[in-house]
Design goal:
The protein is an all-alpha fold. It has a domain of about 150 residues: Tetracycline Repressor, domain 2, CATH 1.10.357. α2 packs across α7 and α5 packs antiparallel against α6. The protein starts with a helix and ends with a helix.
C-alpha cells in the first residue's frame, strides 16, 4: 500500500498552467479564491480582473499562472479528478470482495463531496459544486480534440479506466465496460445537477441518492 501511494499523487497535466500554482503562496491563493469566486458568481461572469481584486493582486499576476480562465477551469477540473482518483485507489485497495469493491467505487464517484482537511487552500465541497455545474464547459469547446491530444484530460480518462477494470473483474466478458464506467461518472454529476436545478425530473432524494440508482443499475446490468 505504501509503495502504491508513493506512486500516486494529486497532479495536474503541466501543459494546463504556465506556472504551477502549488509552488507558491500566491498560486495557492489564486486557486483557493478562484473556487470561491466561481461558486459565487458563475464561470461566465468570472474574470481574472475580479479574481485579482479578491486576492489583492494585479490581474497580470494571475496571467503568470494561467493564460486564460478556460485553462484555470481545466486545472480545477483536473485537480478534482486526480483527488477523486486518489480516494478511489486508497478506499478500495484493501477490499478483496469484487462486488463490495464495485459498490464502494460507485459510492466514491457518485456521493456528495464533503471537505477534506488535507488541502487547506482547496475547499473540495465547493469545488465539487463547480464540477457539477461548470466542468462540462472545460471540454464542450471547439478545441477539445486538440486539448485531448495534448493530454489535458488524461486524469479524467484514467479514473474511468479504473472503474472499467473494477467492472471487468466481476464480468470479464462484458463488452460495454468503458461505456458503463463513463456513464457512472458523468451520470452521477448529472443527477446532482438535476436535483439542484430540476428536482421534478429525478428520483434523487436524501434517502435515494445517485449512489443507490447507479449501484442498482450496474449490478442489474452485469450480474
Amino acid at each position: 500500500m505504501k509503495s502504491l501511494l508513493s506512486s500516486l499523487k494529486i497532479s495536474v497535466p503541466d501543459k494546463i498552467f504556465l506556472k504551477d500554482p502549488e509552488t507558491s503562496v500566491l498560486g495557492k491563493k489564486i486557486i483557493e479564491h478562484s473556487i470561491l469566486l466561481i461558486d459565487e458568481i458563475g464561470f461566465e461572469n468570472f474574470t481574472f480582473k475580479k479574481l485579482g481584486a479578491k486576492i489583492g493582486s494585479n490581474e497580470s499576476s494571475v496571467y503568470r499562472y494561467f493564460e486564460s480562465k478556460h485553462k484555470l477551469l481545466l486545472y480545477l477540473s483536473s485537480w478534482y479528478w486526480a483527488w477523486l482518483e486518489y480516494l478511489l485507489v486508497i478506499e478500495t485497495y484493501s477490499i478483496s470482495d469484487k462486488i463490495e469493491k464495485l459498490e464502494k467505487a460507485i459510492y466514491i464517484v457518485t456521493r456528495k463531496v464533503t471537505l477534506d482537511s488535507n488541502y487547506s487552500h482547496i475547499n473540495e465541497a465547493i469545488l465539487y459544486k463547480i464540477i457539477v455545474n461548470e466542468s462540462s464547459k472545460s471540454f464542450l469547446t471547439k478545441k477539445v480534440d486538440t486539448e485531448n491530444k495534448e493530454g489535458y484530460f488524461e486524469v479524467y480518462k484514467r479514473i474511468i479506466v479504473r472503474l472499467e477494470r473494477i467492472i471487468l473483474e466481476i464480468k470479464p466478458s462484458y463488452e460495454y465496460a468503458l461505456s458503463l464506467a463513463s456513464s457512472i461518472l458523468e451520470g452521477g454529476l448529472r443527477q446532482h445537477f438535476l436535483n439542484e436545478h430540476f428536482p421534478s425530473i429525478t428520483n434523487y432524494t436524501k434517502e435515494q441518492t445517485p449512489t443507490h440508482f447507479f449501484t442498482q443499475l450496474v449490478k442489474n446490468t452485469i450480474l
